[in-house]
Amino acid sequence: NIMDCPGHMNFSDESSAALRLADGAVVVVGAVEGVMIQTERMIKHAVKAKLPITLVINKVDRLIVELKLPPTDAYHKLANTIDEVNTVLEQLGHTDKLSPELGNVCFASADHHWIFSIPSFAKRYTDYHQNFNPLKKMDLMM
Fold first, then answer.
1. Edge-to-edge strand ranges of the sheet holding 114-117
2. CA 78 to CA 101: how far, in whole Å?
3. In sequence order, what are the residues at sequence separation of 6 or more whose Cβ sits closer than 8 angstroms to the Cβ of residue 25?
4. For the whole prediction, is pTM greater than 0.70?
5. Which of 1, 8, 17, 25 is deepest in the core (most CB within 10 A)?
6. pLDDT at residue 142, rounded to an integer
């Protein structure tokens, strides 16, 4: 079951109540906007409810199409967003890190209908290139 809890301030009561019924939380953060005050509030509620958290960085396409960022700058923007979320988690005493290598961070574009995590991308790459072991390569990254 999925409960869509809008991040807008007007829906904070509904979002907090929905987290009490959930087995996990998917926190969606805009790639351009980054972590906002309401995002921090929802992360706080998810940590308080002791829910596992998955981060989805949405609107990644905007970094390329609208901002026209070169790959290195887009990488740094995405890494900064992950660091922002991890900083909020650290401040709340949450010990688990969010990291693409751990598979608990996904990158998405709702407008273009795609989402991937590093493990799912590695699997797709493997399916295309037959003699490639993504797990072996991922072990090198960690």
1. 25-30, 53-58, 105-109, 114-117
2. 14
3. 19, 42, 43, 46, 49, 51, 52, 53, 54
4. yes
5. 25
6. 45
Residues contacting 49, CB < 8 A, separation 6+:
19, 20, 22, 25
Closest CA to 34 of 77, 90, 97: 77
Give me the residue label for tokens 């509904």.
14
Tally: H helices and E strands in the chain = 6, 4
Residue 126 three-state SS? helix
The mean pLDDT of 112-117, rounded to a whole number, is 95
Residue 87 φ/ψ, nearest 5 degrees = -65, -45
Which residue's entry shows tokens 């992950």?
A: 82
Share of residues in the chain with pLDDT > 90 (%): 60
